[in-house]
Amino acid sequence: MYRCVLRMSILVKLYGKLRENVKEIDLEEGLPVSFNIKPSEVHIVYDILEKLVIKEDELSHIFVNGKYCEVGKEVTDGDRVGLFPKNMALLFVEILPQFR
């Protein structure tokens, strides 16, 4: 009997100036840097920031799986994390389900 163990990863996208924090990836103009992190290496968004040497005050917005969040948000297998720098601040309003 064969057992297949699927190991996933956390997809991280860095936008704007934050792209410069990843030296080993060739940067293309205008595109976010996308790469994967092993879930065993991080537990919350703050762990990702530490790993990439990004300070909290450099960020304007953090999204996990398309939802706005804070640095204390837990991340797990298969999550998608988007980090935006202050120079790309977004006007963001969350529309609650009862108002849709």
Alpha plus pi helix count:
1
Q: Kindly provide the name of the CATH class.
A: Alpha Beta
Strand fraction band? 15-25%
> Oligomer, anyone?
single chain
Return the structural class.
mainly beta
Spatial gap, N to C terminus: 49 Å
Shape label: globular
Q: What is the H level of CATH, i.e. the homologous superfamily? A: Beta-grasp domain
Round the Cα radius of gyration to an integer and report it: 15 Å
Give the count of structural domains: 1
Strand order of the largest sheet: 2-1-5-3-4
The CATH architecture designation is: Roll
CATH fold field value: Ubiquitin-like (UB roll)
What is the total tally of β strands? Answer: 5
Can you write the helix and strand succession as a string? EEHEEE
Note poorly predicted spans. none
Helix content: under 10%
Average pLDDT, rounded to a whole number, is 82
Q: What's the main sheet like?
A: 5 strands, mixed
Please explain how this structure is put together:
This protein is mostly beta strands and 100 residues long. It contains 1 helix and 5 strands; from the N terminus they run E-E-H-E-E-E. The chain has a 5-stranded mixed β-sheet, with no helix packed on it. The model has no long low-confidence stretch (mean pLDDT 82). It has a single domain (10-99), classed as Ubiquitin-like (UB roll), CATH 3.10.20.
